């Protein structure tokens, strides 16, 4: 990405936050955009939501170093506002390339923006979370964004339950890929990688 200047977020960011983790990970987690802490450190999910994500990973025997973590947007929207459609469209090619390069077994979408983009749906996270789905050549597992559980404690139990399902899907064995995991039938959406 270099010193990306493709959208107005370039003028307000501190640091470009590309992604972090195992480049050959079985699990890839995708959020919406960096927050304040991420913008300062240049790494996704390093604040309170990141600590909760670490706990959730540990609950299924997976270390942060075993996964790859990225966001749709690589720059923080001012005031942590929601990403705009234009910002997503401008930045999404980088995420598509990350997914191609990592080639994860499962992409875990965190929250509405990542889920809607990757699944090509307008459905909200509440209606699709916790169920593996196929989107073109991707196995996708939507969950609430960990930050949501920081504001609504009831979502923490939901996230723990969803991670138990995720652990079953991957067999909770870091580094060992599985095949033939049951997922919902493929939706009628184009591939994430079609331009």
Describe this structure in words.
The protein is α/β, with parallel strands linked by helices and 195 residues long. It is 36% helix and 13% strand. It has 7 helices and 6 strands; from the N terminus they run ββααβαβααββαα. It has helices at 36-41, 48-59, 85-102, 112-119, 125-128, 146-151, 154-170; strands spanning 19-21, 27-31, 68-71, 106-110, 133-135, 138-143. The chain has a 6-stranded mixed beta sheet with strand order 1-3-2-4-6-5, sandwiched between helices. The radius of gyration is 16 Å and the shape is globular. Mean pLDDT is 88; it is low at 173-191.
Distance between the termini: 19 Å
Strand content: 5-15%
Order of helices and strands: EEHHEHEHHEEHH
Q: Largest sheet at a glance?
A: 6 strands, mixed
Envelope shape: globular
Based on DSSP secondary structure assignment, what is the total number of beta strands? 6
Short description:
This protein has 195 residues and is of the alpha/beta class.
């Amino acid at each position: 990405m270099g010193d990306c200047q493709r959208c107005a977020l370039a003028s307000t960011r501190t640091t470009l936050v590309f992604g972090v983790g195992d480049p050959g990970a079985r699990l890839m987690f995708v959020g919406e955009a960096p927050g304040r802490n991420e913008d300062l450190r240049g790494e996704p999910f390093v604040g309170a939501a990141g600590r909760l994500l670490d706990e959730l990973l540990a609950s299924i025997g997976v270390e942060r170093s075993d996964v790859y973590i990225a966001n749709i947007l690589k720059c923080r929207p001012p005031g942590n506002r929601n990403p705009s459609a234009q910002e997503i469209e401008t930045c999404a090619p980088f995420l598509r390339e990350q997914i191609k390069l990592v080639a994860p077994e499962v992409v875990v979408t965190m929250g509405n923006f990542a889920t809607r983009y990757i699944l090509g749906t307008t459905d909200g996270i509440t209606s699709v979370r916790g169920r593996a789905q196929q989107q073109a050549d991707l196995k996708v597992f939507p969950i609430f964004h960990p930050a949501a559980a920081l504001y609504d404690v009831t979502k923490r139990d939901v996230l723990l339950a969803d991670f138990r399902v995720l652990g079953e899907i991957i067999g909770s064995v870091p580094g060992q890929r599985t095949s033939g995991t049951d997922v919902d039938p493929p939706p009628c959406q184009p591939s994430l990688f079609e331009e």
